[in-house]
Amino acid sequence: MARQARTIIPGQAMHVMVLGNNRETIFYKDADRRIYLDWLREAAKQFACSVHAFALMPNHVHLLITPQHVDSLAKTMQSLGRRYVQYFNQQQGRSGTIWEGRYRSSLIDPDYFLRCQRYIELNPVRSGFESSPQGSSWTSFGSHISGTAETWLVDHEHFWRLGNTPFERQMAWATFVKEGAPYWEDQQITEALLRSKPWMRDVYAQKLFKNNPEQVKIRRRGRPKKITSIISMA
C-alpha cells in the first residue's frame, strides 16, 4: 500500500510525534534528552524549521514545528532521527532502528495553535508522570513561563498576542495551561495526530481542501470555543 502523503503547508505549524519501536524506551537519562534537543535545534536551523514546543517522554516525543519549505520538516526529522539512532545504539550496545515507523504529523489550524501547544506541554501530566506541568524538566513549558530555559525556541505569533510584555505572556500562558483542556479536545488532537490528519475548524478545512475534502475528514465530537479568556488578559 502506498504511503499517505503528508499535508504540509510552508509557514503553518505541524504537530509531530515520534514513537519508540514497540513503545520501548528511547530516553534512559537526562543526557539522552539533552543531546536530542541539541540536535533538534541544529537540524531545525539547518533545514529551516521553527520549533515552538516539545515534550520528551520516556518512549515518545511530541513537537510543534513550523516548516518554512515543503521538505523542511522531513529533512529535519530524518537528520535528527538518524543521528539519534546512531548515538542511542552506541550507548546501549545494540543495533537496528529504535523508531516505530514514520513520524506522525498533523497540520494545525492557526486558531488552534495554543490549544495544541498546551496539549504537548501537559503530556507528562496527562500520562501520569507528573502532577503539574512545572514538574517536568523536559517540556517547553518552563521556557514559556520563564523565557530562559530553551532560548532557541521560536514563539508563535499567537503566543505573542497573549500580552504586550514577556511577563504578561508568561502569566497568561501559565493560566491557560493550568485550566487544562476538555477531554474531547484531547481526543480530537490525539486522533488527528495518530491518523496524520489536519486538526482545524471546518470552515478553514473547507477553504484549504475544497478540492480534496477527504484529506481532512475526521468525525468530530465538539468544537473548540474561541480563546478569549487568555487574550483578554493581555
Automatic annotation (TrEMBL):
Pfam families: Y1_Tnp. GO terms for biological process: DNA transposition. GO terms for molecular function: DNA binding; transposase activity. It comes from the Bacteria. Residues 9-123 form the Transposase IS200-like domain. This is Putative transposase. It comes from Polynucleobacter brandtiae.
